[in-house]
Amino acid sequence: MAAKKLCESFSKSLIDDVQKWGCMKQTGVSLRYMMEFGSKPTAKNLLISAQFLHKELPIRIARRAIELENLPYGLSVKPAVLKVRDWYLDSFRDLRSIPEIKNSDDEKEFTQMIKAIKVRHNNVVPMMALGVQQLKKGLRLNNVGYQNLHEIHQFLDRFYMSRIGIRMLIGQHVELHNPNPLPDCVGYIHTKMSPVKVAESASEDARAICLREYGSAPNIKIYGDPSFTFPYVPTHLHLMVFELVKNSLRAVQERFMDSDKVAPPVRIIVADGIEDVTIKVSDEGGGIPRSGLPKIFTYLYTTAKNPLDEHPDLGTADLVTMAGYGYGLPISRLYARYFGGDLQVISMEGYGTDAYLHLSRLGDSQEPLP
């Protein structure tokens, strides 16, 4: 069915081209390289950057399009997944339609196009989540256990890691065109980012959501030196801390909602090591049972209400809701690993949970290329 749909929507020559480019070798870049290269956004450097992306992006996008076509358990033919596959094929076709980039005019035209590609892919995560939910509903009917879905977890890890890389490369190139960059910023990278300040901002955002949902929210205490800085991507860090704090606030709030005790604060500790900057988010929200710990980094597990169960008519509407898909932790871990860090969660059932976010401060590790 998927193959038929593919031939109907896309020409054979395009499909052959995708197969050819999907076999080519990807080239990873490091945070340090992006920073050093982007620190001088001359016309010559922008041209070199565009020429690199002109070759690199079709390879990465073709690989994902091929994978989307060959997923187990019939995931490839779910309506939401077909829509994502079509976005990838459209983007591949757009990239291949641009001839060699030889001068500044070519580069400007290419930059506008990749900007549009980035927007086209904005809703890939919720749309894939919807596809997985569509699959889950079918499997529930056939009693297939989650432990059998290991291949799907592995695919989603590769798929989302690749997406982080594609968006980082496009965003970095586009941002280098900004005529008024923020001080100490090279594209998306802040060369003097204060993790404490980013943690403060992410915590305020997470607390606002908790207040909106529950009418009250536990306090948050942050320990660390606000003047300590290191080079990193603030949007990535904000996303990770926001997710961890949001989970902690929800656990504490639900545990103490009907209690006469005062809810204990969520604590964030920022430690500056030689290799890593580590951020610990600590709560007393009752913890996670040991049997549940292996599930928290999978894409098929969530303790929140499933938006699809509440709105079964959503179909393939353009969803931007994230809560309830259970994607926060696994995607946060991918963001951490993208620049050589990691995310670990340690829990004491009956007490609370500690999440350790390790960020590599050397900036030398290459992108992990799935």
Question: Any descriptors?
Answer:
endoplasmic reticulum; 5-stranded mixed sheet; pyruvate dehydrogenase (acetyl-transferring) kinase activity; 12 helices; mitochondrion; 370 residues; 3-stranded antiparallel sheet; alpha+beta; EC 2.7.11.-; HATPase_C_sf
Q: Beta-strand percentage?
A: 5-15%
Ends: how far apart?
A: 27 Å
* Count of helical regions: 12
Identify low-pLDDT runs: 310-323
- The percent of residues in helical segments reads 40-55%
- Helix/strand order: HHHHHHHHEEHEEHEEHHEE
**Strand-pairing-aware structural class:** alpha+beta
Order of strands in the sheet with most strands: 3-5-6-8-7
Count of strand segments? 8
The average pLDDT score comes to: 88
- Gyration radius from CA atoms, angstroms: 22 Å
How can the largest sheet be summarized? 5 strands, mixed
Give the overall shape, derived from the CA principal axes.
globular
Describe this structure in a few short sentences.
The protein is α+β, with helices and mostly antiparallel strands. The protein has twelve helices and eight strands.
Report on the architecture of this protein:
The chain contains twelve helices and eight strands. 52% of the residues lie in helices and 12% in strands. The strands form two sheets. A five-stranded mixed beta sheet has the order 3-5-6-8-7, covered by helices on one side. With 370 residues, the protein is of the alpha+beta class.
